[in-house]
């Protein structure tokens, strides 16, 4: 499993031409607006806005599906259980099995908000090199320590993914059947996990020592050398304004519309 969030950062689309610092402000505003939605009537509009943004980004749909697969497991249990445990209005009963209206509405609200927010986040970090995202976050005032930790964490997640893929391929070539659930396979999975942790720890030490030798912590941060022209600034400015207006609309409607 590898993240590779910026695999398609080389594409040419309106989202790719949007300067990352502007885009970060605008799309984070939209994400917060989606998080405030409490009325089901706003969900179709949120889905339409999210679909338009994803379509404009020109990111492959397979990229979205592959990145949504693992986070979806975290809310799957909530979405399945809510209709049976939340609410008082019964819409279906079969023996002890009772489906409640409020639970169904909450499950729909949570799942749609989750997929809209995650899709916008993927567009935000998938339409620019990850290093540009880090620099944009730094230019917006994020702490240097947090920036470094984020960059290193992302780097090591990639390393862990690469290491895991290599080791899985190696044990399969030696006849290992990962789908069989037995004591022997559990022992092998435990050994695999321990080996990955030890190797990643040793690698992190080597990288940290190399960073120290290259003067990490003693040099001033080097700014973004990329020069932007007036056209790019105007385009990014108006794209940010339009997106923030949409975000304010969602937040205003969330305040005035009754909670479902």
What does this structure look like?
It is a single chain. With 260 residues, the chain is mostly helical. It has 9 helices and 2 strands. β1 and β2 form a beta hairpin.
What does this entry show, briefly?
The chain has 260 residues and is mainly α. Helix content is 71%, strand content 3%. Helix 2 runs antiparallel to helix 5, helix 3 packs parallel to helix 5 (101-126) and helix 6 runs antiparallel to helix 7.
Write the layout of secondary structure elements.
Elements: H1 14-17, H2 20-35, H3 43-57, H4 61-85, E1 90-94, E2 97-100, H5 101-126, H6 130-139, H7 144-173, H8 183-213, H9 230-256
Antiparallel strand pairs: 1-2
Helix pairs in contact: 2-5, 2-6, 2-9, 3-5, 4-5, 6-7, 7-8
Keywords:
single chain; 260 residues; mainly alpha; two-stranded antiparallel ribbon; 9 helices; flat
Number of strands: 2
Mean pLDDT: 80
What would you call the shape?
flat
Sheet with the most strands? 2 strands, antiparallel
By DSSP (H or I, 4+ residues per run), the number of helices equals: 9
Largest sheet, spatial ordering of strands: 1-2
Give helix % range.
Answer: over 70%
Secondary structural class: mainly alpha
Oligomer class: single chain
Distance between the termini: 38 Å
One letter per element, helices H and strands E, the order comes to: HHHHEEHHHHH
Radius of gyration: 23 Å
Identify low-pLDDT runs: none
């Amino acid at each position: 499993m590898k993240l590779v969030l910026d695999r398609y950062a080389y594409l040419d689309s309106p989202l790719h031409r949007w300067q990352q610092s502007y885009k970060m402000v605008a799309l984070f505003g939209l994400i917060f607006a989606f998080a405030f939605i409490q009325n089901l009537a706003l969900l179709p509009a949120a889905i339409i806005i999210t679909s338009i943004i994803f379509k404009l980004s020109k990111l492959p749909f397979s990229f979205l599906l592959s990145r949504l697969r693992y986070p979806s497991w975290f809310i799957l249990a909530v979405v399945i259980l809510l209709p049976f445990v939340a609410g008082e209005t019964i819409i279906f009963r079969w023996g002890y099995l009772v489906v409640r209206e409020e639970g169904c509405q909450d499950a729909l609200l949570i799942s749609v908000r989750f997929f809209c927010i995650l899709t916008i986040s993927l567009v935000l970090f998938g339409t620019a090199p990850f290093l540009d995202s880090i620099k944009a976050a730094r230019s917006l005032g994020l702490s240097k320590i947090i920036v470094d930790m984020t960059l290193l964490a992302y780097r090591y997640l990639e390393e862990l993914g690469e290491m895991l893929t290599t080791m899985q391929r190696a044990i399969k070539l030696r006849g290992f059947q990962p789908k069989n659930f037995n004591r022997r396979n559990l022992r092998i999975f435990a050994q695999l996990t321990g080996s990955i942790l030890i190797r990643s720890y040793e690698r992190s030490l080597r990288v940290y020592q190399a960073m120290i030798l290259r003067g990490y912590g003693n040099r001033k941060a080097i700014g973004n050398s990329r020069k932007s022209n007036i056209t790019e600034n105007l385009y990014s400015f108006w794209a940010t304004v339009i997106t923030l207006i949409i975000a304010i609309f969602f937040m205003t409607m969330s305040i005035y519309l009754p909670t479902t």
